[in-house]
Amino acid sequence: MKNIDDLVDSASDLAQRGLSKGEIADELNVSRETASWLVERSGTGTEPETSDDGGPHDIHVDWSAVGRDSNRLYHAGAAMADLLSKKGDDVDLTIGIEKAGAPLATTVARELETDLGTYAPTKHQWDDDESETTDGSFSRNFAQIRDRDCYVVDDTITSGKTMGETIDAIHEQGGNPVACVVLADKRGVGDIRGVPVYSLLQVIRVGSDGDS
């Protein structure tokens, strides 16, 4: 995607296909506020949350050149696994955050010889009325937590809310999240909920609104 109009068109298409704003945010690798703004710009939504200058402050990360090619995706996942390779001695489970984190977690799990689990976060159900959303969930089709040490894998960190939710959900299942890894960290965080975060790329915004 080369400009804002491409993002607006994509948001419109996804909204017309019935995706929630949370799912649109996930698909476009933007914040929920940005997703809401893009849908409104496309004429298919209601009034979004915006910043004082009329638009949200965000950075779009387009990693489709990696995602659409299985060979590139494997090597990206292998690099993420390398970042985790010396973090924890007894980790035998990798949790991928759906949707985009799951294929990356598959490679990480293979490289580090762990079981594979997936977590569907609450944001996928978010639209205009957050009171109607339900909790996230672990897929029963994959490995379960069962009090195990684990890694957490996603594609990007925008606000850190989804990663934090996943860490909390793992703790609720009796698990111990040892480390998190993402392709790109838009916040430059060192840890979330006390769990270290590693990334292949850190995106730092430099401007009047600060460094994040």
TrEMBL record:
DNA-binding transcriptional regulator that functions as a regulator of central sugar catabolic pathways. Gene3D superfamilies: 3.40.50.2020. GO terms for biological process: pyrimidine nucleobase biosynthetic process; regulation of gene expression; UMP biosynthetic process. It comes from Haloarcula amylolytica JCM 13557. This is Transcriptional regulator GfcR. InterPro entries: GcfR_halob (IPR053401), GfcR-like (IPR022854), PRTase-like (IPR029057), PRTase_dom (IPR000836). It comes from the Archaea. The keyword Mitochondrion does not apply. Keywords: DNA-binding, Glycosyltransferase, Transcription, Transcription regulation, Transferase. Belongs to the purine/pyrimidine phosphoribosyltransferase family. GfcR subfamily. One of its GO terms (molecular function) is DNA binding. The gene is gfcR. Residues 63-187 form the Phosphoribosyltransferase domain. Contains an N-terminal DNA-binding winged helix-turn-helix domain and a C-terminal regulatory domain (or effector binding domain) resembling phosphoribosyltransferase (PRT) domain. HAMAP family: GfcR. Residues 37-60 are annotated as: Disordered. Pfam families: Pribosyltran.
